[in-house]
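>> received
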Amino acid sequence: MTSAHRRLGNRMRDFHGAGDAPRVPRSRVPDGDRTVVLTCSDYLALGEHPAITGAMIAGLRAADAGGTVARARRPPADHPQVALGEAFARHMGAAAGVLCPSGWAANAGLMQVVAGPDVPVYLDALAHLSLWEGARAAGAEVAYFRHNDLDHLRRRIDVGGTGVVVVDAVYGTSGARGPLDALVRLAEERECLLVVDESHSLGVRGERGEGLVGELGLVGRVDFRTASLSKALHARAGLIVCDRPEFADRFAGAAFPAVCGSALPAHDVAGLRAALGIVREEGWRRERLHAVTRGLRDGLAGLGYRLVDADTQIVAVETGTEPDALLLRDALMERDVFSAALFPQAASPHRNLVRLSAHAGLTDEDVALVLAVCGEVRERMPLPCS
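>> returned
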């Protein structure tokens, strides 16, 4: 019988791969003066914004020493974390907002509140894993439906009955948008709760960054919206908004991340408050992000690459085979351009992708470099036209 130690070693070797092109690239020191990073989700380039860092420093200096201790219940109404959650709710056109330590905590905790053994959950096959884990922790019957396939979802509900439908507004692996208009109509028709994860659209979509639900005019018709604020707001926190004022107290008493977690540190709250103000006021960052995204998408399509059909800042190149994905990723890395190669099951069954996450800090020269390298690789990687 193979020992547990050996089985673990085998799994680790399988993950890292073998040969000259491992799945996890070997670390390297950039050669040039400029490194182009397309692997992070700081879409609005807020990571080094002086207003945010200044607010965080001030928050550290002013923090109460007991401000980060574990809390078994919701902080008091005058707590800065509570006030900021309500500010996010107003920003997104909702009645109530709750901040959590992370997007994972927000998603997993929400599912524990809205689902259960008597409330089934219908998840898009590519919905974030935190939503799946929360549904399982709630003891709910979990059924997946094929990615963005509303006919399959309708059949699932016909069998399982009314429950909770869970989707992403923008899927982080491929950049594809969920069909939110049709999903809202289906959820209303079948009397289901609808949960939309806006992690990759909050701050990026909408006139002032209120997210895709707001951009599409669906505020008030989506029951719960969640987000990891580590994306466009570049902060260490998660968010839930809804139109049920009583939800915050229920979440604090029932969700494991709230019962067993802790309040956000004062400096994180201060930095996040500053980030929300920047997202609302500096619309040029969204304009720049959209311009960079168009440049990458149009350029790659012109080179003959097949892209996941989307208009979002997550640009996913379908490479066909895993070796081709590694070839493109490694060629970019040799020129100090860092991308992410995604394989089944992370991308989707039977699909290999190279993901380029655009951000507002990219220059026109950065975009030109990415396209130049992709043009060189294209000659060695025959792909059907998109």
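>> The chain has a mean pLDDT of 90.
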